[in-house]
Write a sequence for this structure.
């Protein structure tokens, strides 16, 4: 494992070498009395004593500056002085089309003229050449700028770094100091190793063509409240590295390193390493843990193989130091896991076919086959807290420290079968259905069958109003060749005495008396969606769960399902779903470039809970 | 009769002479005002009369607006193309006249030369003639509809991540329209080159290509139209391509290996290792 860690450490070095080979781009350094940036149009407008210095070998001064970052061209106008290595010429305006290597100039010598410099040859202007009609156009900017600054460095098609920046938040000035706007088409700049948060304001404090340094101001209602996070990106054409510390200002910190490289067109490798630390300032650590994933993909012409390896150390402190367990061990939190002595290693390799159409039918199928290996020489069965038996699993009087598995599965889908009045877009019904079935065999003599079936019917009634109804059944069956799930006498956590046969009082988890490792989770969804314009959306989702084993709210056995900060359930096959829930969701434009999404779930007094917590998302546009 | 013809000819001559001396008025945006010239954003330079009158375009009276870059102006040209009056405004003025009518008076030392950059390339023998695409910048309603793979959890949110929002994975939330489809309506100006990818709320849950490899961003160029429909298909998700493998989740250590497929069995519930029977001999 140390070799693996060493190898993981060498990857950034290789990456840095790859990045250094990236091509050069034009840098524009701008100083002016007033610089304004309009985020919605990616425009930089500057006025008063404009000074521009470019990496193409000239400087320009003038009265006004305008740059369209997307069109990649800039203009300086009014009492312009153009200085090259050999000459200084006065004029009225200069416009640089960076993409085309054309510098258009209106000099004023004895009289005005028109010069064009071709391909950065500043010594030989082409005089009199007709210029494109919009060379010297200023954009019509209205409204408040997103930020103002005193100087800026702009790298074409990549980033703009503002100094002395002051942001505008609904009219209120927000001092930002150094601020980088990254607009590179390379999406690797956005790769991050941070978890989702209810609110995230990213302040890019430094940047270059291959790097970006960011401080995140975040709010996470579920775990941490308000906090800061730090992130460093290194980006190449086919690779990236992201390092982060999150939260930076809390005792519980996650230090993450995400590496990716695409080698050729068919092979990619990605690693993700996380170090977790729980330490109040310089006090003693109460927990430290590490996990590393290595994911390797190879693409074939009509299929691909994915291999995921994972190694985790839940307790790096040694001496059997345990963190304080969380409130419930039914949903293991990282605090609980940090006390576990387990350090499992696993490898899972899966071959997956493309989604293939079956003959000429509107049916598609996808097949997957897998092999896996799990090992833990210490282990902590089920991975919970101190006291759990060692190994991966005990069965038949043996403790299994290594378990192999193999799996076979398929997906069949029927996307968008139309019926109704096909000539009227608002009278068409769409039927979708899919079945995913999988069987996974283990060297412990059992296998698990998993089947997920989904069907939906949808219709758009008017342009803004649509609805759908969907029904999902999730079957999970854990079948042992011998033994397996034993019989169970219902119990209650509220002091109610449970009889050994029906009828059972509601506080008893009586459905577990019949539970033998098979569950069936049924969910009926009905959603209405109203979208009158892109700035407003209202939706209402109602769900009915009919599950076996069912929930037992009176016994406090199940809490309401955990959701992450963006409202997604943490577990997809959660036992103990409340029978009914309704979630209204409204999204509206708060600022010209910010939408606000608010949702809240009503549980119909399940477990004495009516409303869940608000899920609020700020959506930068 | 001769008198009538002579009178008409005289009248016509008077009209021509009066018309020839009539000032030409045109509106435009100033590029610069210096060295005895006024420059418009067309790049054309015109002489300014020594006694040029500068007024406020709105009031017609004196103005504090200084002629210079970005300022809008209504210029009055005399018969020689010299600017005799400038009415200034910081806001765009209603179109009046046409600067191309006075372009012949623009001052330039060098005679105009053709620009090869502006000439359309001659198509090859098997090529269709190229058309220079022009975009007006008008707002266009773009309807994105995406079909997701069948293994997408029914509880998943759907997002678009775009270069316009710094590839923030939660910037554009989509609306579910059925089990396999999501939709969002965006207003984009024509001419916009829009790059985007679909994700489920984080970049660890981003779409990948059909062959499991991370894909390049999707791209559309918004053309001039009232509405545009974009239909996409997502073939696989980054966190779900490894079959039964656990997904990468920042800020959460993975759950240890659990041989039972039920992640949250309550305490006391039957587990397969709680009281197994011995295997058959």
């Amino acid at each position: 494992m140390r070799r693996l860690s060493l190898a993981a450490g060498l990857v950034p070095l290789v990456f840095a070498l790859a990045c250094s080979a990236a091509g050069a781009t034009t840098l524009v350094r701008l100083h002016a009395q007033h610089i304004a940036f309009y985020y919605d149009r990616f425009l930089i407008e500057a006025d008063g004593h404009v000074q521009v210095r470019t990496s193409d070998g000239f400087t320009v001064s003038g009265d006004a500056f305008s740059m369209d970052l997307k069109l990649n061209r800039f203009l300086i106008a009014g009492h312009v002085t153009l200085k090259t290595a050999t000459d200084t010429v006065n004029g009225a305006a200069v416009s640089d089309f960076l993409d085309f290597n054309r510098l258009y100039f209106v000099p004023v010598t004895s009289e005005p003229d028109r010069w064009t410099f071709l391909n950065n040859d500043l010594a030989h202007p082409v005089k009199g050449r007709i210029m494109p009609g919009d060379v010297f156009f200023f954009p019509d900017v209205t409204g408040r700028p997103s930020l103002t600054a005193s100087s800026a460095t702009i790298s074409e098609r990549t980033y703009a770094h503002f100094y002395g920046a002051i942001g505008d938040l609904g009219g209120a000035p927000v001092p930002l100091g150094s601020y980088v706007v990254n607009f590179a088409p390379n999406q690797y700049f956005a790769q991050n190793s941070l978890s989702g948060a209810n609110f995230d304001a990213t302040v890019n404090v430094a940047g270059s063509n291959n790097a970006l340094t960011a401080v995140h101001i975040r709010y996470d209602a579920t775990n941490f409240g308000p906090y800061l996070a730090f992130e460093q990106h290194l980006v190449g054409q086919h690779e990236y590295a992201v390092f982060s510390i999150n939260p930076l200002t809390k005792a519980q910190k996650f230090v993450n390193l995400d590496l990716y490289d695409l080698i050729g067109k068919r092979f990619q490798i990605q690693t993700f390493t996380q170090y977790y630390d729980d330490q109040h300032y310089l006090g003693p650590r109460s927990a430290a843990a590490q996990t590393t994933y290595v994911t390797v993909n190879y693409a074939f012409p009509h299929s691909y193989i994915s291999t995921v390896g994972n190694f985790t150390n839940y307790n790096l402190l040694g001496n059997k130091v345990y963190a304080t367990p969380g409130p419930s061990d039914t949903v293991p939190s990282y605090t609980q896991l940090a006390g576990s002595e387990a350090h499992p290693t696993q490898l899972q390799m899966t071959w997956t076919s493309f989604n293939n159409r079956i003959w000429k039918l509107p049916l598609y199928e996808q097949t997957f086959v897998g092999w896996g290996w799990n090992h833990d020489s210490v282990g902590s069965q089920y991975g919970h807290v101190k006291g759990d038996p060692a190994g991966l699993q005990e069965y038949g009087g043996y403790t299994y420290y290594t378990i192999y598995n193999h799996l076979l599965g398929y997906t069949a889908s029927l996307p968008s079968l139309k019926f109704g009045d096909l000539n009227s877009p608002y009278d068409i019904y769409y039927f979708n259905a899919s079945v995913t079935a999988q069987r996974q065999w283990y060297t412990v003599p059992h296998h698990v069958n998993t089947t997920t079936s989904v069907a939906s019917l949808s219709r758009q009634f008017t342009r803004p109003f649509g609805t759908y109804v969907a029904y999902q059944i999730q079957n999970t069956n854990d079948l042992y060749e011998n033994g397996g799930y034993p019989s169970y006498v219902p119990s209650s956590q509220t002091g109610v005495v449970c009889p050994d046969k029906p009828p059972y009082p509601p506080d008893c988890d009586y459905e577990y008396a019949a539970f033998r490792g098979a569950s069936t989770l049924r969910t009926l969804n009905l959603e209405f969606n109203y979208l009158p314009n892109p700035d407003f959306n209202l939706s209402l989702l109602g769900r009915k769960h009919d599950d076996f084993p069912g929930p037992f709210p009176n016994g406090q056995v199940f809490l309401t399902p955990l959701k992450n900060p963006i409202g997604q359930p943490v577990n997809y096959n959660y036992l103990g779903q409340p029978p009914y829930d309704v979630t209204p969701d409204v999204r509206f434009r708060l600022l010209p470039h910010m939408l606000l999404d608010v949702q809240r779930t009503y549980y119909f007094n399940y477990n004495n809970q009516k409303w869940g917590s608000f899920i609020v998302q700020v959506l930068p546009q | 009769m001769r008198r009538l013809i002579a009178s008409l000819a005289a009248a016509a001559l008077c009209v021509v002479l009066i018309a020839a001396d009539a000032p030409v008025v045109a509106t435009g945006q100033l590029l610069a005002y210096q060295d005895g010239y006024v420059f418009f954003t067309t790049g054309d330079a015109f002489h300014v009369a020594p006694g040029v009158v500068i007024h406020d375009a709105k009031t017609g009276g004196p103005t504090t607006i200084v002629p210079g870059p970005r300022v809008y102006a209504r210029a009055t040209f005399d018969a020689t193309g010299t600017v005799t009056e400038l009415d200034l405004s910081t806001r765009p003025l209603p179109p009046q006249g046409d600067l191309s009518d006075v372009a012949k008076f623009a001052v330039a030392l060098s005679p105009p030369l053709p620009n090869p950059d502006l000439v359309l390339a001659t198509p090859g023998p098997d090529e269709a003639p190229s058309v220079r695409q022009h975009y007006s910048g008008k707002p266009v309603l773009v309807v994105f509809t995406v079909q997701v793979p069948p293994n997408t959890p029914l509880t998943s949110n759907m997002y678009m991540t775009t270069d316009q929002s710094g590839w923030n994975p939660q910037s554009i939330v989509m609306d579910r329209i059925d089990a396999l489809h999501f939709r969002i309506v965006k207003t984009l100006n024509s001419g916009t080159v829009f790059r985007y990818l679909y994700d489920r709320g984080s970049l660890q849950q981003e779409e990948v290509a059909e062959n499991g490899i991370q894909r390049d961003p999707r791209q559309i160029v918004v053309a001039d139209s009232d509405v545009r429909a974009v239909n996409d298909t997502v073939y696989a998700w980054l966190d779900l391509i490894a079959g039964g493998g656990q997904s990468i989740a920042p800020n959460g250590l993975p759950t240890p290996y659990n041989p039972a497929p039920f992640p949250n069995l309550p305490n006391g519930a039957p587990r397969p290792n709680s009281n197994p029977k011995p295997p058959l001999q």
Summary: Residues 246 and 255 of chain B are 9 Å apart (CA to CA). The radius of gyration of chain B is 35 Å. The helical segments of chain B are 2-21.
